[in-house]
Amino acid sequence: MLKKIILLLLILPNMLVAFSQETEKITVKSGDDIAAALSSYGMYRFQAFTDGTVVFRNGTSVNAKMNYNIYLGLIQFIDAKGDTLALSSPETTDSISVDNHLFYYHRKYYFQVMANYENCKLVMKQKIEFRPVKVGAYGTYSPGTSAQTYESLSTPYVINSKLALNEDIIVIKETIYYLFYKKYREEKASHQGFLAAFPDHKNEIEVFIKENKTNFNRLGDLQKLTAFCAALK
Hints:
alpha+beta; 22% helix
């Protein structure tokens, strides 16, 4: 039993690295605007609502001013009345482009395409959690154990429309990369994931990874490896 526990402890960190490829923690003080911790443009991925196109699976499409709301995890658009709305049935979409950035809706998440090739795509999913900062002995601070995601975050922390806080929290931004291939198949963009997606080229991929010292926690390295794999015949 002890050997099994030790083996699990040795394997577990590698499993976590393969899944959680980038994690950033930011402490936001009481009274501060939480949107500033989400991105350079507050709640949104892009600086402004810009021209976008939604292509549906039935072949139809619509155009509108769009942006990606990081806080809500939604693609939003501005309608003819000037109201900001979310896509009502994202599962019926085939793809969404916003200012030449491509998104797919898959398994209840929006994935942004970071490298796009005919036979494969490197995509990114972001998960956001909030943890209250607990005050410990002698006035020291430590992160709480309960997490809240965008979907479940309501007003214990947010006290106005500017997303100001009524207590200190830690914002945890987790970025996970995946490979989409053969239309709807997917693998995590890890060492084993690339080998699984391209089983006929394992040797070439292993050589590339070794020679280039690929770091699977770096987007640039993943994009280079994806380009290499996409060109394999």
